[in-house]
Amino acid sequence: MAQPSPVQIVAKTSSLPPWARALYAVSHPIAILPVATVVAAWFGSYSPADITQLQNVPLFLQGSTDMGGSDIFSATLALYVTFGLLGAFYTILRMHTTPRQPTFAGELKSNLSHLLVHALVFVVGGSACVSYDSQIGPNDFRNMFLFVVLVYAVSSVVVTLIGRSTLTLGPKLLLAPLAIYGWLLLGWDGNTAKAGQVLPSHTDPAFMPRSARHRVMLGWHQLCDRVLGDR
To answer: pLDDT tens digits for 80-94?
Structure first.
């Protein structure tokens, strides 16, 4: 199938409702660095009191075992969620403005190719943070990076299925980040053992599941540590 020209894509994009055009602009690969800068600055600037006393830091974002690492971890997870949401929205909007591929496999391949910049930034940024684990006890950065790889893989399939459905644009966009919603629900009581524990710097957290959902996330960390070892 012939690919649409840039002029055709611009023309189709211009036909989107104003709110959808704004979402398309924010989720486009060109906007990745500005959006990432804002998100990292916002979620990576918790004060020492916030980090050490767990004030104002959502359980979902708590991890690592010192001040700097905890701020970096918070910003990293916030970026993972942001990239997951925007990637899903961008894919749906791009599918809406281009001809449908004849097969699901072809559509999935096309979607992944257009998310190449998103994926590159994720891999470079996420893997860079993994090196922090060598300075502390838990392997929170590595294990959550691998978990998000799994979430993104599932999300790619789900978004493609939704994009090929007969739903209108609004419901498609609302449903597109289902995998991200699922992760938010699963990790809301904590993604790491550190979540909810007030600890001195560099003190390893105890295994204290806060709920069944938190236990699942701790089980993921145990699996990764058992297979990949400690850093």
So the answer is: 999 999 999 999 999
